[in-house]
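Troubleshooting log. The previous run stalled partway through. Resubmitting the same two chains, unchanged.
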Amino acid sequence: MNGVELVCPAGSLPALRAAVDNGADAVYLGFRDGTNARNFPGLNFDQRGAREGIRYAHERGAKVLLALNTYPQPQTWSRWTRAVDQAAELGVDALILADAGLMRYAARTHPGLRLHLSVQGSATSAEAIAFYREQFGIQRVVLPRVLSAQQVRRVVAQTDVEVEVFAFGSLCVMVEGRCYLSSYVTGESPNTCGACSPARAVQWSEGAAGREVRLNGVLIDVFGAHEPAGYPVLCKGRFRVEGRLGYAMEEPTSLSVLDILPELLEMGVSAIKVEGRQRSPAYVAQVTRVLRQALDACHADPAGFAPREEWVAALQRVAEGHTHTLGALERQWQ
Amino acid sequence: MKLALGPLLYFWPRQRVLDFYRAAVGWPVDIVYLGEVVCAKRRALRLDDWLTLADELAVAGKQVVLSSLALLEAESDQRGLQRLVDNGRHPVEANDWAAVYRLGGRSPFVAGPHLNVYNGETLSLLAEQGATRWVLPVELSRETLAALQAERPAGMQTEVFAFGRLPLAFSARCFTARVRGLPKDACGFCCGDYPDGLLAESQDGAPFLVFNGIQTQSASTCNLLGAVSELAAAGVDVLRLSPQAEHMAEVVAAFRTALDGGHGEPAALAGLTAGAPSNGYWYGGAGKAWRAGDGRAPA
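Second attempt completed without errors. Output:
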């Protein structure tokens, strides 16, 4: 691999083509069920679609990573192991797994299959990564969005496992894989069902103060007449704390690492990832194109790299809340 | 079934912590978890202080377990973990896979609630590493517990979170400091002002969550007192009671009475809990939900 790999989301075949055509080095996708953390209606791949997507990507030199990053329970364990077997049979380039038990199954059953530890595996230190490396031979880890840039640098220096970090997309405020807020409210979480704040639990209504949105009865936000009404991801709702109303956890905003791309390259990150398998092919095309250009510019001249205005504007247009942050990478955010 | 006092998740002043555990010496709990799980910056008690408390509790006949940090970020967090693992006297509860890595094959340990044990394969992996007890993730139901019990490796004890505000999430961000308008690096230990967490309400005035530094908990208090007979029948070995600021002695007594009598009435805890009761996770639904009694219709 030359330089840092650009890993882009494919929630559908058109999105996959958009990613590959616009310069993704790898795409990641999931099957059409609860085995992956973006289990949304109308999204993801059946066997035939996956086969077609893999063919399309491989013919154009792009890799395909398959996310099986939810936590199987005994009652449905075999659905997850079958998904591992199917992925191996389809010839994916790597599996992205979160559950240690499923990781063990995959390593034993398909010893030649490349394994990545999902962000949902919550590994934030070189020791946690070493556990998965020694037990299952993982080749890459996706870091949760909780470490400062300095801490990412240290993890990269302390492990020989490839490190992938999120570069752009919706910002998860909590440690991925250890957030049960969604199941507390709705009964379904990313870990159990591959869903956060699931659409079936969303209820809109008109109230005295504006448009009210609830998740399974819990009032997440109220939007005034001139406010854009966003999707009620529950950590980005407005709540009252000590008499003050506001975004107690986080504003609707997107992560963007454009400003520190040279630093990430210099510290030895192996791959950068775009979030958004639930987003449209147009979004995937736009973000992939910008990050491809940015990565190429950064590879060519890291010292002279500066984000171009048109890149920033293009990303801003598709960002949640039309604004962006470095998130935990920047100490002040924490 | 045994009763365990879970690790203190809040930041209380040093004297309050010492008083709490000296009182706990006389409570009918079999196991006491000690140590800081939430935030490494909280240092009202150092490891030596926890070990002194641990020895006092052990002399009084309690089994002591030292709980490890759930989120490791700084290099100092890793050194702290190493010191905990090397304590030489008491077993450790691993709350991150880094702790499993350090403990594996060296000393018996407890697989804590933040390791995400969702299936028998993970349980058997942990048994191979030396885990002798595991804690069910709080979001899992009685059905999943029963299925996991059927696949439980020999010699592995099962513990269930049965009382307290539910630990729901961790973040890099300190929400208490954010609410107070302080940067995390100059937080002034403001989480210490909220001995049961800082309440966040939805806009219609309903209690929703509480912030405990970088941890988010439920505003409701999980209460499985009404399920003790079911928990015993499921072969659960230990019930975890998570400390709250007031009435903890009465809470422990109520669970002890229920365990001894084989049946508990959740109403025994009326007026004694930090939040309204919840038990929805146990019955396979939303964690916030509440059923008044075993298998009865939701209240």
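Takeaways: The first strand of chain A starts at residue 5 and ends at 9. Chain A has a mean pLDDT of 95.
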